[in-house]
Amino acid sequence: MQQTVAPDQLVVNTLRGIIMDASRSANSGHPGGAMSSADFASVLYSEFLNFDPDRATWFNRDRFVLSAGHESALLYGLLHLAGFIDTTDLQGFRQLGSRTPGHPEHDVTPGVEATTGPLGQGFGMAVGMAVTEQFLRAKVGKDIIDHHTYVLTSDGDMQEPIVQGAASLAGLWGLGKLICYYDSNKVQLAGPVSRVDRTDYAKLFAAMGWHVQEVDGHDRDAIRAAITKAKGQKKKPSLIIGHTVMAKGAATREGDFGTHGEPLPAEEIAATKKGMCLMEGACFQVPDEARAHFQARYPELRENAKAWTEKLARKLKRGNADLKAFWKAMNTGRAELTLPMPSFEPGKKVATRAAWGSCLNVLKDALPHLMGGSADLDPSNQTSKYRDAVGIFAADNPTGRNLSFGVREFPMAAILNGMALHGGVIPFGATFLTFSDYCRNAIRMSALQKLPVLYVFTHDSFYVGEDGPTHQPIEHVASLRLIPELIDLRPADATETALCLEVALKQTHKPSCIFLTRQGLPTMDPAQFPGVAEGVKKGGYVLKDCQGTPDVIVMGSGSEVSLALDAVKILEAEAPSRKFRVVSMPSLALYESQSQEYKDSVLPPTVLKRAAVEAGRPEGWHKYVGLDGLAMGIDHFGESAPAEKLAEKYGFTAATVARKIRERYFG
Known about the structure:
Layout (H helix, E strand, L loop, with lengths): L6 H20 L4 H6 L1 H11 L14 E4 L5 H11 L4 H5 L29 H20 L8 E5 L1 H5 L1 H13 L4 E7 L2 E2 L2 E2 L8 H7 L3 E6 L3 H12 L6 E6 L22 H10 L12 H7 L3 H21 L2 H10 L18 E3 H15 L3 E5 L3 H4 L2 H7 L18 H14 L3 E7 L3 H13 L5 E5 L17 H5 L6 E3 L4 H12 L6 E4 L4 E3 L9 H6 L3 E4 L7 E5 L2 H16 L5 E5 L3 H5 L3 H7 L7 E4 L8 H4 L4 E3 L10 H8 L3 H12 L2
């Protein structure tokens, strides 16, 4: 190889070579955008990014989020040069079982900060990371918490509305440690950007309170100057718009939109490598000079990390009680949390959303790192008292723990994911259940990333009433239950609500959705129903039993558990010889995780007469009642009317439920 290439150019050429080789060897991938972003990424990672070369998870590291997840080959090239992954990993790009999947996954590849791919969400998660850094820096001190969050976005990212929602909040919150690089190569998968977008992002972001710069994205001196200037910002997040060329450096395909989603042909790669002074026949070539230049700062980075560890030890030894308590709280594992909960008066009607509010008001003091808020529904979501007590997070109040998300459900959910990825806080977000559809893909990303985010969804059925079908969820609980590794929690009363929250807050690798009522529900008497505390943890349990084998098992969740109890009272009064078991099913996911022996003890296989009632889609209940069993639900949209009128019309009364059970099983 010719030795005439400047070291920083050699690093960029090496990255582009890895990108071309990875996508070609996999016969799939997105080389074009990765090649256009290589100049910025190489400068950032080799000259600015603060991290520990020996420990990818060092807490005070700068975070780098590749929101343009299709450019994963670029990130893997960086991580290879950094020493976090090896050549075998590069060779396994997009292959089964490798550490280099098609889009980055944070729990698969060391050095990957977030699982990205669905465009725009990486940006939202970066905002969440920056929020957490700003909060923890104010709580612990900038001598311990002081790092930047960098995010690389593409034209496709910027077109996703989630970016504008999250960016608006970032500007409002004054996230000065957030730096976004927008690789504006003006090409996307289907063709030129000009076909679909004419937005002036410089003006848009400036209007949202961002510091904005525009540079030639292939001029590394200009990139260095822009990053330096962005790091100097204290009160504004920064946007660096890098004007680049798709597939920069390619021998004949520069600017070709076809390179966005297709590997370059072998002959194009050979010609490109020749022009870059790389060995044409070598695959995943990393010249020693390139690696040495890329890692030139490693002695300094290692010393920084070591000094930080020593500084932290000294501070904790000498620090005040509040600091020590907060540091202990933020580093206590979720499963080990101590969670005080309020008690509720048996027999009193309490909406489960109100029970959540009562729990939150107690938990806020026990969990000083509990941080979250509502999507502009504070009174309805019962977060108002929490907001007023802990303060609103803002540029001039970084220790505030309430996040006022506004009407931005999808950005809210992505920001929560970023907070969980950063670590040090327990994030939650709240809105109406019907708006969970806006959050859904970010909830899916919570589950995929194994993040224990808490989603609080109130107004969980047609009992919303007068607001009508636009606000009355029908399919939403059933739909969310389809997401793998997600904990569904639909408590039957105030006591179950507290127990469900305990389950959610002690999760270590799974997100939870808790579904709460607007209407009041009778609080069960623990003396009458002693199995509640342990039963909720198992997702489904025998709430009310009979002597011997039941003739019929009636099960339900949420507001329909008390309905099932009332229906069974009617049936027992009609025929005292008939035996009924009532099962509360607050979480189908938790129930399914139990042993078959336990599940059979709750739903004995020999008892085939079964009924289920839930104010939502009934189809999922046939797994428990059988194909010929009785699943009472609602499979149509609601209407605008008082809740009690709708309950009567739709058959959600004790008399109607009892009648349906009687007609099905007793003629």
